[in-house]
Amino acid sequence: MADRYQQFTKTPVGKFLVPKLGLPNPVTLRRYRPGQPALDGPALLGAAPGGRLEKVVRTQLADAGIEVLTSEVPDQRYGALVFDATGITDPAQLREMYAFFHPVIRKVGACGRVVVLGTPPEKLDGKERIAQRALEGFVRSVGKELKRGATAQLVYVASGAEEAAESTLRFVLSAKSAFVDAQVIRVGTEGIPDVPKPASWEKPLEGKVALVTGASRGIGAAIAEVFARDGAHVVVLDIPAQGGELSEVANKIGGSALQLDITAEDAPQKLATYLSERHGGVDVVVHNAGITRDKTLGNLKQAGWDAVLTVNLVAQLAINDKLLKDKVLNKNGRIIGVSSIAGIAGNVGQTNYATSKAGVIGMVNDTAPKAAKYGATINAVAPGFIETKMTAAVPLFIREAGRRLSSLGQGGLPVDVAETIAWYANPASAAVNGNVVRVCGQALLGA
Question: pTM for the whole thing?
Answer without folding.
Answer: 0.94
